[in-house]
Design brief:
- With 248 residues, this protein is of the alpha+beta class.
- The protein has two domains: 73 residues, Winged helix-like DNA-binding domain superfamily/Winged helix DNA-binding domain (Arc Repressor Mutant, subunit A), CATH 1.10.10.10; 166 residues, 2-Layer Sandwich (Beta-Lactamase).
- Helix content is 46%, strand content 20%.
- The protein contains nine helices and eight strands.
- It has a six-stranded antiparallel beta sheet, sandwiched between helices.
- A hairpin with a 5-residue loop joins strand 7 and strand 8.
- The chain is elongated.
Length: 248
């Protein structure tokens, strides 16, 4: 019985990859389940209204019965609660403080944190608001905003970096474009001297960005030879949290 449930879940997961209709052969090959078993499971899912079959084309697609389940599931999502174990795992693996940040106006707001073991820290507090263009974790939030918002933001007078330097708006725009392409942000000494940040976006089931996650550490603890490893770790946990929120 449990194996049947796992196979049913696997089929549904496969069918949600794109908004399309499938043949039994496509599904069977895609999930590595024999066609006869696939056909039997699909018939059961049709009875539950979780899958629909076009009798003319003999193609299958996800059914309307999943809509109410999805709506009910989203009502149970709590960003901070879902983020906490992931933040804890991120800080444990990187040995650095991990943060969850959301957009608040033109600033990024820390709403959750998990501390690493090092006594020397780059201090960030709950409720601390800093402009979106300053620091890797916040720049992720800016990078995934609509183009008209980014234009508006860059037209404003930008807060200088910690050393008093005014951000170059064209370089910042280029940086935001790269962040959006790679789903990853990296910064050094933008609002804290000798502080390094790595951030990645968090998406929900509607594919909207809802937050960013990342780590902040003194520069010397993220040397060049360790940088890519740390980036990979942050990306992994960002993906895990997005999955918890229904993003696929």
């Amino acid at each position: 019985m449990i194996q049947s449930l796992i196979k049913s879940s696997t089929i549904l997961e496969y069918m949600k990859q794109s908004n399309k209709e499938y043949t039994i052969a496509e599904i069977s090959e895609g999930v590595n389940i024999p066609p006869s078993t696939t056909h039997r499971i699909l018939n059961t899912l049709i009875e539950c209204d979780y899958v629909m079959k076009d009798d003319r084309t003999h193609l299958y697609k996800l059914g309307a019965g999943l809509i109410s389940l999805g709506i009910a599931a989203t009502s149970n999502i709590n960003l901070q609660n879902d983020a906490y174990p992931i933040l804890k795992a991120l800080s444990k693996e990187t040995q650095e403080d991990a943060f969850l940040v959301i957009k608040s106006g033109n600033k990024g707001l820390v709403i959750a944190k998990s501390e690493g073991p090092h006594p020397l820290k780059v201090v960030e507090h709950f409720g601390l608001e800093i402009p979106l263009h300053m620091g890797a974790i916040r720049k992720v939030l800016l990078a995934f905003q609509p183009e008209n918002y980014i234009d508006y933001y860059l037209d404003e007078k930008l807060t200088p970096y910690f050393n008093g330097e005014i951000p170059d708006k064209e370089l910042l725009r280029s940086d935001l474009k790269k962040i959006k392409e790679t789903n990853l942000s990296y910064s050094t000494s933008e609002y804290i001297k000798n502080g390094t940040g790595i951030g990645a976006p968090i998406f929900d089931y509607k594919k909207d960005i809802v937050a960013s996650i990342g780590i902040i550490a003194p520069v010397y603890r993220v040397p060049a030879e360790k940088e890519q490893e740390m980036k990979n770790i942050v990306s992994h946990y960002a993906s895990e949290l997005s999955k918890k929120l229904g993003y696929y």
